[in-house]
Write a structure and sequence with these properties.
The protein is built from 8 helices and 9 strands. The two termini are 25 Å apart. The protein has a single domain, classed as Bifunctional carbon monoxide dehydrogenase/acetyl-coa synthase(codh/acs), Chain M, domain 3 (2-Layer Sandwich). By secondary structure, the protein is of the alpha/beta class. Strands 1-4-9-6-3 form a 5-stranded mixed β-sheet, sandwiched between helices. It has a 4-stranded mixed β-sheet with strand order 5-2-8-7. Helix content is 37%, strand content 21%.
């Protein structure tokens, strides 16, 4: 079953171009050697060394998966735009595009929604000292602050990426994780068409939880459902379950 294959390919095509043109760099995940923050942290504006994804700067955060082996480059992190330790980054408020590409196995209409939720919730399992995810206005956004002391001690975005990968790999159906992180306003603009399509996919699959039985002719998600066979499979499976009950 595939929902995001086209979108993953589109993102990786852009990533490869950014790297080739010098707009992005890539690195490998390393073991996380950073102390835990011990739960939810609040970092005040006066203590912030760098801010990413604030409402004024812009944010998008999406989790995508595929069952095809070899599409996702496990352990690779690509950053398009300034990282925390880059010259001139300190004190900046920058956008955040967080695109998490996951290789999975065993996805079907019975477990997909539960597994999608489990993967998304790993963002709340990241408790790194000096790193805080603030409440965002949308499930597709993340608003991050890095404490100025953490900046002084060498925090960088691949630490967060490595920690997230570790949590995802603890799920037995996850086989690989790749991250594409964007902090450049110009490159964020290039992601808008993909973000719009991903929101449509999410709207279509999560609507099933509230409306398992529906009229396809009047459904606002008809266009994306007609394009992606797996969404129709999910709706059909949910409808059969509702009829049995």
């Amino acid at each position: 079953m595939e929902l995001f294959r086209q979108d993953i390919e589109s993102i990786l095509t852009m990533r490869n171009r950014w790297v080739a043109e010098g707009w992005a760099r890539e690195m490998a995940c390393a073991p996380v050697n950073w102390p835990s923050g011990g739960g939810r942290q609040v970092i005040l504006g006066i203590d912030t060394g760098m801010e990413l994804g604030s409402p004024s700067a812009g944010s998008m955060s999406f989790m995508m998966w595929t069952e095809e082996a070899g599409v996702v480059a496990d352990g690779r992190i690509s950053i398009a735009g300034p990282d925390v330790q880059d010259k001139g980054a300190r004190g900046q408020s920058l956008p955040l595009g967080k695109l998490v590409l996951v290789e999975v196995e065993g996805m079907d209409a019975r477990n997909l929604l539960q597994r999608q939720r489990e993967m998304e919730h790993t963002r709340y399992a990241i408790h790194l000292e000096g790193y805080s995810v603030r409440v965002a206005s949308s499930m597709f956004s993340e608003w991050v602050r890095v404490h100025r002391d953490a900046v002084d001690r060498g925090f960088h975005l691949s630490i967060m990426g490595s920690a997230l990968r570790t949590h995802l790999l603890n799920l037995d159906y996850v086989k690989g994780v790749e991250l594409v992180l964007v902090t450049s306003p110009d490159i964020m603009g290039q992601l808008q068409p993909t973000a719009q399509r991903l929101r449509a996919i999410y709207d279509a699959i999560y609507e099933i939880e509230n409306y398992p039985l529906h009229d396809c002719g009047s459904c606002p998600n008809k266009e994306i459902c007609n394009e992606i066979e797996a969404i129709r499979e999910l709706h059909n499976a949910a409808g059969k379950k509702e009829n049995v009950i």
